[in-house]
Design brief:
Helix content is 33%, strand content 23%. It has helices spanning 58-67, 72-76, 112-119, 149-152, 159-186, 206-217, 256-259, 265-281, 309-333, 340-345, and strands spanning 3-16, 25-35, 47-49, 79-83, 95-101, 124-128, 136-138, 144-146, 194-204, 221-227, 246-250, 286-291, 352-354.
């Protein structure tokens, strides 16, 4: 199945000066990915390459990716299933919606492996930018938003600043949710396209902490997937809605001892405290899994850009496993379609395993 993509710039005029460099209304760039369920695309339809995701600022994006050590020859060779055409036909049905919140510094669309997988299972996926926080943000007008100077100096132990970023992201996503509801009744081409009764959210790293926080506050979110979320930033919300189904996917370093090898001692300790608190206090359905070969960035496209062929192949395998778990979780716990997810995790697997709140494998 083909995938359509459209990019839109939203402006929240109720918010100004979110970052020092942002003097105007808050800018929120979104990519909306639609499934081609009506077969509008033919087999010879042109598809964009990966760098086309950053149109019309490919050269600026290229310079930054190259500067952080990405292999541009590999990126230039990456294809997608995304059509060069924009979806323009009036929708004949509504689709469940998945909101995507990226890791700190990453562009909203650097999760194409998972986005395409979800869209081909007939979800609409909406990725939400983190302007001035991400290493760059491309606006459809051609404006290129660089990362804020303050973001280049932020530390993992700056909990207050990180919580501030989460609050900004939550307001961005809530604005997007209201915008999508508006399209359902006012946009003649997309009227009724978004099933706002079936909204899920996926967040990676600080995006996962945002997704969790928002799920507890906003009853429009009906299911959540946390991709190696920043659990050291988890605060149990006073106005909490903790009966929503959640899937927590962790990297191979999921327990305290292994975390201390890659994180500062305080962060590792706080991380496990937050993870344990979530595990024991969440009243809704919860599933905690560890992806055995995954690192923190394995939940994004980033490792695909590395030169190591072995790493590339391992990442592809990890991505396939994540795609299966995430898709089946949403099908069962957002769409109420069977028990494929429950069946999948009830058996032993070499690629992932069930863990408890401490991050230890459950035998």
């Amino acid at each position: 199945m083909g995938v359509f993509r459209t990019v839109e710039l939203l402006k929240d005029h109720t918010r100004k000066g979110t970052f020092q460099e942002e003097s105007e209304a808050r800018k929120i760039v979104i990519s909306i990915y639609y499934p081609d369920t009506d077969g509008l695309l033919n087999k010879n339809e042109s598809e964009i390459i990966y760098m086309d995701l950053f149109r019309p600022c490919e050269q600026q994006a290229r310079a930054i990716l190259q500067d952080i050590g990405m292999n541009m020859d590999i990126i230039d060779g990456l294809s997608t299933s995304i059509s060069k055409r924009t979806f323009q036909q009036k929708s004949k049905r509504s689709y469940p919606v998945i909101i995507y919140s990226p890791a700190l510094g990453l562009d909203r669309d650097m999760y194409i492996y998972n986005i395409q997988s979800l869209v081909k299972q007939e979800f609409i996926v909406v990725t939400v930018s983190a302007a001035y926080e991400a290493m760059f943000t491309v606006c459809p007008s051609g404006e290129f938003i660089n990362q804020s100077e303050a973001m280049r100096n932020i530390q993992a132990t700056d909990y207050t600043e990180l919580h501030h970023l989460i609050s900004i992201r939550k307001k961005d996503i809530q604005y997007v949710l209201s915008y999508l509801s508006n399209l359902n009744v006012k946009d003649k081409d997309r009227m009724g396209s978004f099933d706002m009764d079936k909204v899920g959210i996926i967040g990676h790293s600080i995006g996962g902490a945002t997704a969790l926080d928002l799920t507890m506050e906003d009853d429009r979110i009906k299911a959540a997937v946390l991709l190696d979320a920043s659990m050291h930033l988890y605060i149990e919300n006073e106005v909490k809605n903790n009966t929503v189904p959640i899937l927590v996917l962790r990297q191979k370093a999921s327990a305290l001892e292994s975390l201390r090898n890659i994180l500062q001692k305080k962060i590792a300790n706080d991380f496990i405290k937050g993870q344990e608190k979530l595990f024991w206090n969440w009243n809704g359905y919860k599933s905690f899994l560890k992806i055995r070969n995954a690192t923190h960035m394995s939940f994004s496209d980033m490792p695909l850009f590395e030169e190591d062929e072995t790493l590339y192949q391992r990442t592809c395998g990890t991505h396939n496993q994540i795609n299966e778990l995430v898709t089946k979780f949403f099908q069962e716990h957002l769409l109420d379609q069977g028990n494929a997810y429950s069946t999948l995790i009830s058996h032993n697997h070499s690629d992932f395993c069930v863990i408890n709140g401490s991050g230890d494998e459950v035998l």
